[in-house]
Amino acid sequence: MVLDMTIIDDLTAEQDRLEDVLAGLDEAQWTSPSGASGWTVADVVLHLAQGEEGVAASVAGAGVDVRPREGDTVEEAMDLLVRAQRTAPEEVFRRWREARKDAVEALRGADPKRPLTWVETPLKPATLATTRLAEHWAHGLDITEPLGIGFPDTERLRHVAWLAHRTLPYALAVTAEQAGPVSCELTAPDGTEVWRFGPADAESTISGTAGAFCRVAAQRLGAAESGLRTTGPYGAVALSVVRTYAV
């Protein structure tokens, strides 16, 4: 599957959905624990705002410097950044709304063939937009599930599934796992369409619902609890390491 710049329209739609959710929260909900360990709902939105500000800065040529200090992981560096910039929920909401609009505008105007500096490795605008959609979707789960707010799967998960499959070689490499080609056959949220990624003749497969696959890749669901099925010599190991890495 080759993604084109219509991904930005879907990123905008995913952010619009999240904005509708956030606009309906009261202060107690904003300051309640999210599904992201140690973060409130406001912290999650602040993290998203920081990411969108990074997108706009990268397109502008300023680069993105969230490299961890010696001994810190990227996740620890992100946590430190959130803790350093915590503020009132209404200010966080305003900051995210402005940042996400600036980021989308920047991505629409970016040269689609020129890689942009990002956290781990340079990414072309369409791929960067895909990672931001995946990030907003996953953190949308972190916000809505603890609050009991509906957040149904949509066709936009196609992008998240593509990203997870596309980055399998990287996920395998960083975990020192050896594997050959793996294809995915995933049932779309509509229950009828099947999304296929990878070579048709791959001897190893992952199959099941796209929602489960994306949740495993986003580390919001354990592989053993996902109901996903694997075949061949590499299917299980691929499922054990799949992530929505931005490469």
From TrEMBL:
GO MF annotation, one: metal ion binding
Domain Mycothiol-dependent maleylpyruvate isomerase metal-binding: 12-143
InterPro entries reported for this sequence: DinB/YfiT-like (IPR034660), Maleyloyr_isom (IPR017517), MDMPI_metal-binding (IPR024344)
Top-rank taxon: Bacteria
NCBIfam families: maleylpyruvate isomerase family mycothiol-dependent enzyme
Protein name: Uncharacterized protein (TIGR03084 family)
Organism from which the protein derives: Actinoallomurus bryophytorum
